Amino acid sequence: MSAPENAAAPEPAPAAAAPATAVRVAGVNKVFETRGGLVHALEGIDLEIAAGEFVSLIGPSGCGKSTLMRLIADLDAPSAGTITVFGKTPTQARLDQEYGIAFQQAGLLPWRTVAANVALPLELHGVASAPRKAKVEELLDMVGLADFADRYPDQLSGGMQQRVAIARSLAEQPRLLLMDEPFGALDEMTREKMQSDLVRISAETGAAVVFVTHSIPEAVFLSDRVVVMSPRPGRIREIVPMRLGASNAATTDAAARAARTDGLREDRSFFEMVTAVREALHGAPVAAGARGVETR
Amino acid sequence: MSAPENAAAPEPAPAAAAPATAVRVAGVNKVFETRGGLVHALEGIDLEIAAGEFVSLIGPSGCGKSTLMRLIADLDAPSAGTITVFGKTPTQARLDQEYGIAFQQAGLLPWRTVAANVALPLELHGVASAPRKAKVEELLDMVGLADFADRYPDQLSGGMQQRVAIARSLAEQPRLLLMDEPFGALDEMTREKMQSDLVRISAETGAAVVFVTHSIPEAVFLSDRVVVMSPRPGRIREIVPMRLGASNAATTDAAARAARTDGLREDRSFFEMVTAVREALHGAPVAAGARGVETR
Amino acid sequence: MSAHLTPRAETTLRIVAPLAVGAFVLGVWQFLVSVVGISDYLLPSPASILEEIVASWDSIVSATLITGTNALIGLVVGTLLGITLAALAARWRAVDQMSAPVIASLAVVPIVALAPVLNSMFGADSQFGRQAIAAIASFVPIFINTLRGFRQTTPVHRELMRAYAATPGQVLRTLTLPTARPFILTGIRIASSLAVISALVAEYFGGPRGGLGSLISTSAASSAYARAWAYVVASIALGLLFYLVTLGLERLVLRTRTIQPDRTTGTGTTSTSTRSTTSTTVSH
Amino acid sequence: MTDVDVRSTTPATDAAGGPPARGIRSGGSARSSRRGGSLARRRLAAVGWGVLGVLLLVALWEGYKLVAPADGVLIGETRVLPRPTDLAMPHVWDMIGRLGEPVTRSPSAQALWLVILLAALTTLGIAAAGWLVGVVVGIGLALVMQRWRLAEWGLLPWIVLSQTVPLIAFAPIVKSWGSRVEIGSFEWQDWMSVALIASYLAFFPIAIGALKGLQSPDRIHEELMQTYAAGYWATLAKLRFPAAVPYLLPALRLGAANAVIGAVVAEVSTGLQGGIGRLLIQFAGQASGDPAKAWAPIFGAIVLGLVAAGSVALLGAILKNYRRTEEAA
Amino acid sequence: ACSSGDSGSGGDATDDSALTPVKLQLQWLPQGQFAGYFAAVDQGFFEDEGLDVEIIPSGGDIVPQDALANGDVDYAIAWVPKVLGSIEQGANLTDIAQIFQRSGTLQVSWADSGIDSVADFEGKKIGSWGFGNEWEIFAAMAAEGLDASTVQIITQDFNMNAFLQGDIDAAQAMTYNEYAQLLETVNPDTGELYQPEDFNVISYEDTEGAMLQDAIWADTERLESDTEYADTTVKFLKAVIKGWAFAAANPQDAADITIAAGSGWGPSHELWMVNETNKLIWPSDKGIGVIDETAWDKTVAGALSAVNEAGDHLITEEPPASAWSNEYIEKALSELEGEDLDLTGADWSPIDVTLEEGGN
Ligand SMILES: Nc1ncnc2c1ncn2[C@@H]1O[C@H](COP(=O)(O)OP(=O)(O)OP(=O)(O)O)[C@@H](O)[C@H]1O
Ligand SMILES: Nc1ncnc2c1ncn2[C@@H]1O[C@H](COP(=O)(O)OP(=O)(O)OP(=O)(O)O)[C@@H](O)[C@H]1O
Ligand SMILES: Cc1ncc(C[n+]2csc(CCO)c2C)c(N)n1
Ligand SMILES: [Mg+2]
Ligand SMILES: [Mg+2]
């Protein structure tokens, strides 16, 4: 599954997605009707994401990354094609709370304390007070914000807010995490720290992750596979498998990811992967020589 | 002048700044009185920027980069120490329109067209209609937005807006450009493009630039010297001279910068400079080995 | 949630829906009066009101002109005063704080309380008292909105102006006023129908006759309810006219942009909430 | 004048203007380095300036009386500045002094201020009832309009139009219809007609403000609730109502001011005994012989409005955690 | 109106529930103009007749005859011309007692103004309250050949300031109220109260415009179909007569009763008002409340001739015969015949009232 897939030549869709498949997107089109006319946001998208796999979506602005993620989350419906999430329809998956989600903006409710924000999904699904409290504590510990439980969002820095949002998205131990540029609004240094945290957390929880980003190094650092998209209409141009960290094997599981550390950022193979994604993105080899650096 | 200066051991301040000096900051402190008490934003800042020199300020959030820039621009006054801009007081320099300024937000007036936005400073300073028009056209040409003169800001992408803001900051051919994270809000690809543009433009105009950024590669790519700051209170930790592009000599002039191209980003020396700044920032060598990459 | 509509369908529904509601209400009203037989005496049927509108057309037009003129003059004066004082209050905090109790009082004082007093002060033989009341009534929302508008200039813009060493006059002209413009217009729109209703109600409390207010009261006093309602309809139409004209003005000016939210950072400032309908203080 | 900050007492007349811009930290100038000062001191200063403003008005009034020509200032035929006669503009001290005297020479007469106070309390009670009805109706309408866009499109224009109807044309009809309501032991009282008319003015800003507030949650928050598969009611309780608080508070305050205005108008219109409105016409009728007396109910009405609006402001203090996005003034 | 006989049915057989509830709508706030009704309540005259009368004041916009026509109340006090207008609009009402036998309306101008008759109105600013109180002016002017457009009509508010400050040349005033207001005001030139000599007073009673004023109105249909209501009407009128007779004999007490009932006027003004009101009622040759056909016809003629400045007529045709009836008042008078009451005011004479500053 970590073998490079080319969107132009999709593998035939199996009748039913195996439970090991977290997300199956088959032949998905999405067209928006606007005042200015029709906007083809996505066209012929085929993508399969294994359970526990970390997949990044990268591509120029407007290529449909967010749209694809929203379709998976059942926040919108495809114009054509089918999507299954753990073998269910997206709607069913949403109702079953199969996924957690985080956006570019943390989207915390400003009138709730940090703890109450993390507790929100649990509260909505009727988790009793005591286990809820315990869970929230555990989550805040995980994101390193145990001391800030009673603060309000406006008293936190952007990075801390984003960590709260991630804790919230993990509250119900989803098997799938959807993240739309969750670190886009953070400054560089905070961002780097958050990436390491996310690697750790996703390893701990073993969830599959669909991660939208603009940053090549970020995608490379985090992912098992990077899906490179092209705009208007949004298509998958290439899927670049990452061969980083401990495991080089076809099994892209959480254990492999756990081995991913900050040191990796200075690994030779890291630069190579960055170059590979960069080239996929620009549609052609950028230049020859000792490269592999995304200067941004 | 491009020799590394250490803030801890400032050179004695000359009685009067030579005209070749664009900005002289000597022993500057800045303390804010807030509800929560005193905030020492800057302490003992000494810095000299030559005419035509490109200097970046880098440092963690809250270290006082913006504050320093605002002091130079006379948008605020230092609590102690002196600042001169081309030998004048900052206020005089401001009144004489010695500098152009650009912020993280483009700050265009939404009710004015692109052309009218660029024309704003000229208009305010009584430049007649005909020369004004000519100048605006020239500037828009320079930033590649000649076709968008009659658009309104909300019809432009973020990158285009920022280019308009830069054109505006150049309108009066200032000898000094102050830029506070002008590309902070742009996405990666646009940002890279804007950096190249800025290198070109600053070479063309020969202005000195004070550039605030969070991104090490950006600082390295653009600057003659990178000023690395540490927070609370904001101090200059180190000034790292860049030795990129054509010239390695002590004269850091515009011609040297003009030679800086995109190819540079993949130059060996580039990685070394990035590493140097990174180490200065983190306060210690990051690690040994083939590094020099700021992954962000 | 709600099904997705094409933009065309949405535009159509936006027009059809209120018309349908209006037609439904009128229908029920007519039905109640003419079929169910609720007394036509106090609540005349829409049909008989329409008859009266036709019958008293000339007098309705001249009454509408009188009241409309008073409201217009009041609105204009209130606008000028509101903007001027808001500019002073925005400039000097002391002015703001000094005017605060007076403005707060004006915002809660009923017109019925002021009308007789103003008539005494300015004379019952002129329309001035009504115009003054319309001016006071429109002044309040315009002042408040304008003041808010004047405070919307973003720090970036203010610092830019400072960096340009712009004079206070230049700042006002090129930054503050354009920034406040949508707010001022919102204020004027809110004030518009207020001005009409205030001018009209003021007629109940003395002054020359002939306006809508005095004709409504005269007609009602002699139980000519259909005629009274005809004048009421005219006054609603007048209020609506004022509202729509100012709304149109607002839309027109807003066409040239205002500050947009910054898509990339999400931290931009939206200039105003002007697009949607906003409220009105109504004082009688 | 409980609170002299315009932004907090004067209803932001545009209820829909709603909460001010989010507290965006930009540059340094959002915070001021010069204005240190404790909060309490700033409050005190504001009150001081407010008092000064009132004193200035008093000085202006008396100064004008001193210097103005007896017939006021006329431009052409139009008198643009008032006549300074004691009949038109009584001395400030007369107006204040009159408050301390009995209403009439009748041996049973109470002091004027007491009469005004009692009447103001009566009107306050009626206005409060009207306000409550306005709150229920306004929020109810807002809920319906928020839930169904078609309802919003169909109703909103009429709600706006409703406020251009000269209410006093309605007062007798409301009173007349009300007097026919008799359900079991419940019998319609005249004050209820007045409260109903007050609610007609009160509901409007509340409906508009509540609608804006209920519609105010960011899309991101709405979608978040959607991903939690939260139903309509859960979303309402956990998201829409809390998010609406910053919009609702000014709307409720405006509604309170409007309720008072409506109650006074309706009292004048229907002649209901016991309230400020009644005193207004009664004392206006005595203004020729006793000009200062006519001002007493005017002051009463103003204080009443300020108290009503101020009480709602208290509500804002209780709900302060729901207003965290509002800019600290 | 339920009969007094079914007192046992409710179970709450208190004395009160035995009384027939009656609502009387006044045409303004409580004041001496209505002293007779308040006196009848206070002295228990209604109760003696088995009635529990609630007196309902009105405000700026309440039209008493409409409250009656709508069935909100049982009886209403209103001026005859205004009700004639309502009758033409479809109200079905009957004048059952003409309490005021003459018009109390004045038009007051300054003594030196040269306006001492209706004919002098031409080209002047004439004050009126509107609200249907203006028809006498138009009728009087019509008799002088003036139409409404020859004067400028200015709406007066609740006081005489507009006149005092010269905004209007001649102000409408009731003898019992606004005229007194003038005499309670300090003349800034003398420092003393204004005196009657300061004014020219035109009384509409002396003009062709004179119209009948405060009358008691009842619902025509109910009078015909509801015998209980008809009975109640007679009882009601009997108590009213006693009330007014009381006010005639005891003006000071009547004034005090009115103040206690909620009038906001001071004692001197109240007493003045009761006294002047008495002058409009007494003497009443055929007995208080009996409608004088000539006066009625004159009112109708005036109403027919009056056209306001908007060109609207008050009425365009003769009112129906049911618009007035002496049946009930005469019955009431005859039932009171034996009692020690002066029903015609033959022995009545006005008192002297000294007005005090401010009407307080
Ligand atoms: N609700 C919508 N209605 C109309 N067009 C839409 C809508 N949502 C997205 N689009 C359009 O679909 C295209 C893809 O948008 P999308 O937000 O998915 O891009 P993206 O890859 O997430 O971009 P970015 O990197 O800027 O977030 C764009 O052209 C966008 O304008
Ligand atoms: N006007 C002000 N009043 C009070 N404190 C201020 C003010 N402006 C800045 N500060 C404080 O001074 C310190 C330096 O702020 P400054 O904005 O210069 O940092 P920065 O380096 O530009 O940070 P960033 O990278 O986030 O832009 C911070 O602690 C900040 O909170
Ligand atoms: C708003 C308003 N103002 C004045 C009157 C006048 N009015 C009613 S009864 C009466 C006679 C005795 O005072 C008078 C003058 C009114 N009806 N409504
Ligand atoms: Mg996106
Ligand atoms: Mg900064």
UniProtKB/TrEMBL annotation, chains A, B:
Organism: Agromyces allii
Regions crossing the membrane: none
Protein name, as recorded: ABC transporter ATP-binding protein
SUPFAM superfamilies: P-loop containing nucleoside triphosphate hydrolases (SSF52540)
Pfam families: ABC_tran
Domain ABC transporter as annotated: residue spans: 23-258
Record GO terms (molecular function): ATP binding
PANTHER family per record: ABC TRANSPORTER ATP-BINDING PROTEIN (PTHR42788:SF20), TAURINE IMPORT ATP-BINDING PROTEIN-RELATED (PTHR42788)
Keyword set, alphabetical order: ATP-binding, Nucleotide-binding, Transport
TrEMBL record, chain C:
Compositionally skewed regions (Low complexity) per UniProt: 263-284
Membrane-traversing stretches: 12-32, 71-90, 102-122, 128-147, 183-205, 228-249
Domain of life, per lineage: Bacteria
Keywords: Cell membrane, Membrane, Transmembrane, Transmembrane helix, Transport
UniProt entry tagged with the keyword ATP-binding: no
Topology class, membrane: Multi-pass membrane protein
Locations listed in the record: Cell membrane
Chief subcellular location: membrane
Annotated region described as Disordered, given as residue ranges: 261-284
Domain named ABC transmembrane type-1: residues: 60-253
Family under the similarity heading: Belongs to the binding-protein-dependent transport system permease family.
PANTHER family, per database record: ABC TRANSPORTER PERMEASE PROTEIN, ALKANE SULFONATE ABC TRANSPORTER-RELATED, MEMBRANE SUBUNIT
Protein name, per record: ABC transmembrane type-1 domain-containing protein
Organism per entry: Agromyces allii
Automatic annotation (TrEMBL), chain D:
Keyword Mitochondrion: no
Coiled coil: none
Keywords: Cell membrane, Membrane, Transmembrane, Transmembrane helix, Transport
InterPro entries for the chain: MetI-like, MetI-like_sf
Pfam families associated with the record: BPD_transp_1 (PF00528)
Annotated region (Disordered), positions in chain: 1-35
Compartments it resides in: Cell membrane
Domain ABC transmembrane type-1: start-end pairs: 134-315
Membrane spanning residue stretches: 44-61, 111-143, 155-174, 194-211, 298-319
Topology versus the membrane: Multi-pass membrane protein
SUPFAM superfamilies in the cross-refs: MetI-like
Biased composition (Low complexity): 9-35
Protein's UniProt name: ABC transmembrane type-1 domain-containing protein
